[in-house]
Sequence to fold (160 residues):
Amino acid sequence: MFGPDWDAACPSCTEFTSELNDALIARLGARDTSFVVACRAPLAKIETYRAGRGWVVPWYSSYGSDFNYDFQVTLDGSVPQLDYNYRPEPQLLGDGRSVELPGASCFLREDGEIFHTYSAYARGLDHVDFAYAFLDLTALGRQESWEEPRGRAPVLQDTL
Fold:
């Protein structure tokens, strides 16, 4: 979502995060559930970006840690693991720099232990994108180039 050397967060991730309001965060909290965002950008850069957008979602920095690598959302030629979405994806590295990719992981804390219970990547995250959920109900759908039948609506934007 936000690499350490980027000036701004990913545009698609920014759109999604803008949909996360304080009512949603409070509703999850009422069920003893937290939602947070984590990325590799340094915390000061995150806080500046977050404040500029007026976001309430808690956002943490994994800068200098292995967190993003452990959950396979950062690919980097200097790190031996090049898997994404449960399969090898070395071609995603492109020019050899690190690549930040979408992913969500769930955890359970019980009796002082933390368990990783779920992860999803790429299109496996579509069900939590509010705009996609509503667009999928309509006749024109998302209006992305991969949709069938082709040409039924103008392509407005391509994401993921």
